[in-house]
Amino acid sequence: MTEIDKTKPVMVTGANGYVASWLVKKLLDEGLTVHAAVRNPEDTKKVEHLIKAAANSKGQLKFFKGDLLTPGSYEAAMEGCELVFHTASPYTINVKNPQKELIDPALKGTENVLNSVNKVGSVKRVVLTSSCAAIYTDAIECADAPGGKLTEAVWNTTASLEYQPYYYSKTLAERKAWEMAKAQSNWDLVSINPPGVFGPPLNPKNTTSESINILKMLGDGQMKMGAPKMGIGVVDVRDVAEAHFRAGFTPASSGRYLTSAHNTDFLELGTVLLPKYGDKYPLPKKALPKWLLMLIGPITNKLFTRRFIKNNVNIPWVADNSKIKKELKMSFRPLQETMEDSFQALIDAGILNAK
């Protein structure tokens, strides 16, 4: 049982990220002092949405400079904090050098942050933003999981530097975090493991998230001939932020939390948007056949390898979210609300234009 003193500051790494921005807003709205660590506090384009959130809240916001690959760079932000949210980690699928662009920042960054936690001494709990990527690589693995569902007990054993390196980076980083947590007794670790995170970004024009790319593909005509029925899990970014908050401040929270709301697929993400946006945007209405994807996928998109298509298309994605519902009393937004709010945010920001 870890009680966190809410009069003490709380630290967030990567504070201007997609999930972290909503978490910072929640912390500020609750009246907390947030030590926001970002790569460049002077870059107003990337932090002005946080400044605005602070101005409209009861809380206080203080910026600090922090870099995943600079040892000790988070120590100043951590001073006096009992709770640290480590959200910073690169999330991009299309990379030229996976070791340099994904593995090093995720793994060394986690090590760097936790070394500082050990050094500073005031921290009682670390909440790590992990991912379902640390649980599985391909939807086909759901069927092989105990009871045919992914749970917190399952670890990813199939990703590698060559195949799905992003998934590999999240697995290595979370394993390292648990190893370091078990080697000491001053602080405890809780991990939040979401699948595909959708929902409105607080800073749409400067948010790097694969879900933004997927929304663009759904809405700009790239999938007007059809979408792959590719099994994925989806959760709202606002619910992920809430899950982090509850994991931090629920004294009994422990271990991993599979933070998924919906077992779904790419096609459904498009079809739930049809009632509201179908007359103005070229949204997909039907599934692309798997044989066609096997034929054209590897040509049109290097990530759509035959192995990936075989293991994910027309394969249901199934996960068990009962632990987070029971222990953190979490409930989740409907898929339609999440998708409509995400889509509208991109329209309002001028990122998506009607046909």
From TrEMBL:
Keywords tagged on the record: Oxidoreductase
Stretches assigned to the NAD-dependent epimerase/dehydratase domain: 10-247
Pfam families membership: Epimerase
Name used for this protein in its record: NAD-dependent epimerase/dehydratase family protein
